[in-house]
Automatic annotation (TrEMBL):
GO molecular-function terms, A-Z: hydrolase activity
Signal peptide: none
SUPFAM superfamilies (alphabetical): HD-domain/PDEase-like
Record's keyword terms, sorted: Hydrolase
Record's protein name: Metal dependent phosphohydrolase
HD-GYP domain sequence ranges: 128-324
InterPro entries, sorted: HD/PDEase_dom, HD_GYP_dom, HDIG_dom
CDD domains: HDc
Length: 328
């Protein structure tokens, strides 16, 4: 039997063709039955949408094999979905995050020009969403990611980084380039073997040397596409440069590192520490900030780091609150 996946019915716009079959789940005493609700090439009209609202049905189902088609639909209708005020902000945030994760997954599986251009377009839309939603977009930070993959990392770093850059006063165009640069920042890892990327033990010197090449390889990949990615190059190239000059690939220090590279360095470390990786457990946000301050402070521009602590504050309070609620 084919596997089915739930999709949020709010993500389906009236009078569009979804491109994959939609099913209703009927629960009986003995089994779940999936009944075809709208065929892939039939327009999902107001009547179909209205019926779901009437019956208070918030989820439809698609076949697992059709997942890619559904994500394509989300991406093509992204602007309309994220500006639809009838969809609750928390659901819009989930749609943004899952569409972004799927996109970056495609990008890392096949980093060709088309997918790079798609990422750029998506980043611009994601910034529109963040600018439009204001503080509500901070719920992007609350989406828990338990496994470490390069692509979920890239989405998290882009979400946290863009919200932080907005707080620092970045304006529309700069924010768009920044978000797109951050989504692409680890693209050079696509040319490193996954055996090295996912290795549990300590890396050998040779393996580490290969890892250290990914910022430059990333720039090469971006240049191969022939796009004008000036800001994106800088973030990709400099996100492992340390303020004290101990980073890679060029050992740049202080103001040799571009402002966006300094921000990317902070966010990259923060996300790595707060996410479970193949070789380390995730830390709570507060513990991650303490570790960054105590063990790595020389890697960061101190003023920016203080700003980042300020920025993370309310989020960490909320995270603690959630933890306390669980305990009691
Ligand atoms: Fe990296």
């Amino acid at each position: 039997m084919a596997d089915y996946l739930p999709v949020n019915s709010n993500s389906l716009r009236s009078d569009t063709t979804i491109g994959c079959d939609l099913y209703l789940r009927i629960k009986t005493k003995f089994e779940n039955r999936y009944v075809l609700y709208c065929k892939d090439d039939i327009v999902f009209g107001d009547n179909k949408k209205g019926m779901l609202c009437e019956k208070n049905i918030s989820r439809l189902f698609i076949k697992k094999d059709d997942q890619q088609k559904y994500y394509e639909y989300l991406e093509n209708n992204f602007q309309e979905i994220i500006t639809d005020v009838r969809i609750p902000p928390s659901q819009r945030t989930k749609i943004v995050h899952s569409a972004a994760t799927n996109l970056v997954k495609d990008l890392f599986n096949d980093p060709r020009a088309g997918n790079i251009e798609r990422t750029k377009t998506f980043a611009y839309n994601m910034v529109d969403y963040i600018l439009q939603e204001g503080r509500a977009a901070r719920s992007l930070l609350n989406i828990a990611i338990h496994e470490y993959y390069t692509y979920t990392h890239s989405v998290n770093v882009a979400a946290v980084g863009t919200l932080f850059a907005k707080e620092l006063g970045f304006k529309n165009e700069d924010l768009k380039h920044f978000c797109s640069g951050i989504l692409l920042h680890d693209i050079g890892k696509t040319r490193i073997s996954t055996d090295i990327l996912n290795k549990k033990g300590k890396l050998t010197k040779e393996e580490y040397e290969k890892i250290k090449k990914h910022p430059e390889t990333g720039v090469e990949i971006l240049k191969e596409t022939g796009n004008g990615f000036t800001d994106e190059y800088l973030i990709t190239l400099q996100h492992h440069e340390n303020y004290d000059g101990t980073g890679y690939p060029h050992g740049l220090g202080k103001d040799e590192i571009h402002h966006t590279g300094k921000i990317a360095r902070i966010i990259d470390v923060y996300d790595a520490l707060t996410t479970t990786r193949s070789y380390a457990q995730a830390k709570r946000p507060f513990a991650a900030l303490v570790e960054m301050k105590e063990k790595m402070i020389n890697c960061f521009d101190k003023e920016l780091f203080v700003e980042f602590i300020r920025f993370s504050g309310p989020y960490d309070q909320r995270a603690k609150q959630r933890k306390n609620n669980k305990v009691h």
